[in-house]
Design the sequence.
């Protein structure tokens, strides 16, 4: 008798991608498939960061219902919309984060069920030692967040910050290495808070211990908060194993807005921090929210002038999207969507110019991890990321180069990326 086929649909962040991998690793009585059309069962790992994210999940659930799939809901959306979705019969089963390792048992249940979060301090025990079809691995090292940013609902659905045991993390990295992974990205809800619940062990210590293993070539750190980067962490981030790119979440470059957002960082100290890393040769990225309530024209002009002073080369800009239940959702002085969009494009243009200028000024040998390829006129066109988190394309007549490292001392710098040949 053939096994029922299960498809996982993941919405949202890299942490959710990791959570999906945890669930896949606990499937025994079913067959995981990568094509939803072939699936009998669909597990939706939801995101609830904005009202729009909720709408996207609901729309997908409706679509799967019309296709007669047996649907289950998990993820962050369980805490905000789970009961509503269950009562409306949009999912056969709904279960919170702490239950995901029981997925094999849940998918076998004939009766409908709703399991809300009962253990907000839960830490997964599942060992993830490989990622299918990936040349790098994302490794979750912590859960939860202790910040209270006014626009964010995530602390209420992910819980307080808690850390995975260092022994487990280090063993996972060794196993990943044995499975051919040579680059690891440390991820979590709030990576910089790693160790907040441990005695005398912080993110800086973990980085040094990973470096001491000597089993991977490159380590990338997920998004950090400026207020979490102390002198000890700065020193650890200078280790050669660390990618020469850091993502530090500013969210805004106006102190007026940072106060409204209930952020811990301030422009003056942020600029000092970014300038220090830039002097060490790092490419620097950030998150930035445009159009948050209160971002008047005067505030925007001030923020823009401040933004131009930052040595930023990468940016994830977001137009503010209302999230019910957050302090920001109650604020007046809303910013029209077209105004926020115009501001976003201004920042994107600045970053594109900054990135191009950085690449021209830092013409150094580039270490590229090859990720994927497409067929070209003469062989294949491969692409990957260099040590500065910049996209690199190269041509080769050789097949099956994915997952390998290449060093390019000669290459062409174009606005959209760097190009080379093998």
Sequence:
């Amino acid at each position: 008798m053939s096994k029922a086929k299960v498809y996982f649909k993941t919405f949202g962040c890299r942490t959710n991608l990791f959570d999906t991998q945890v669930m896949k690793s606990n499937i025994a009585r079913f067959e995981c498939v990568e094509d939803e059309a072939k699936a009998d069962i669909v597990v939706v790992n939801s995101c609830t960061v904005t009202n729009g994210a909720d709408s996207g999940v609901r729309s997908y659930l409706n679509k799967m219902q019309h296709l007669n799939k047996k649907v289950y809901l998990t993820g962050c959306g369980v805490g905000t919309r789970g009961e509503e979705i269950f009562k409306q019969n949009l999912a056969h089963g709904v279960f919170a984060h702490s239950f995901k390792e029981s997925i094999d048992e849940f998918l076998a249940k004939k009766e409908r069920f709703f399991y809300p979060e009962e253990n907000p301090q839960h830490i997964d025990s599942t060992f993830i030692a490989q990622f299918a079809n990936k040349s790098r691995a994302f490794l979750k090292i912590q859960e939860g967040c202790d910040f209270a940013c006014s626009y964010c609902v995530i602390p209420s659905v992910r819980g307080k910050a808690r850390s995975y045991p260092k022994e487990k993390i280090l063993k996972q990295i060794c196993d990943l290495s044995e499975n051919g992974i040579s680059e690891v990205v440390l991820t979590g809800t709030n990576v910089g808070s790693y160790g907040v619940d441990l005695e005398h062990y912080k993110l800086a210590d973990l980085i040094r211990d990973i470096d001491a293993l000597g089993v991977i070539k490159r380590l990338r750190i997920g998004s950090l908060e400026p207020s979490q980067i102390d002198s000890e962490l700065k020193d650890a981030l200078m280790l050669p194993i660390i990618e020469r790119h850091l993502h530090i979440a500013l969210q805004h470059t106006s102190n007026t807005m940072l106060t409204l957002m209930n952020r811990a960082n301030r422009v003056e100290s942020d600029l000092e921090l970014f300038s220090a890393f830039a002097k060490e040769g790092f490419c620097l990225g950030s998150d930035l929210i445009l159009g948050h309530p209160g971002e008047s024209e005067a505030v925007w002009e001030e923020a823009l002038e401040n933004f131009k002073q930052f040595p930023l080369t990468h940016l994830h800009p977001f137009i503010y999207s209302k999230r019910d239940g957050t302090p920001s959702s109650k604020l007046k002085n809303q910013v029209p969507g077209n105004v926020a969009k115009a501001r976003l494009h201004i920042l994107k243009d600045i970053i594109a110019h900054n990135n191009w200028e950085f690449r021209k000024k830092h013409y150094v040998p580039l270490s590229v991890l090859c990720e994927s390829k497409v067929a070209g006129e003469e062989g294949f066109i491969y692409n990957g990321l260099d040590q500065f988190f910049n996209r690199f394309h190269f041509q080769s007549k050789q097949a099956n180069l994915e997952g390998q490292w290449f060093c390019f001392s000669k290459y062409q710098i174009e606005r959209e990326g760097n190009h080379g040949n093998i």
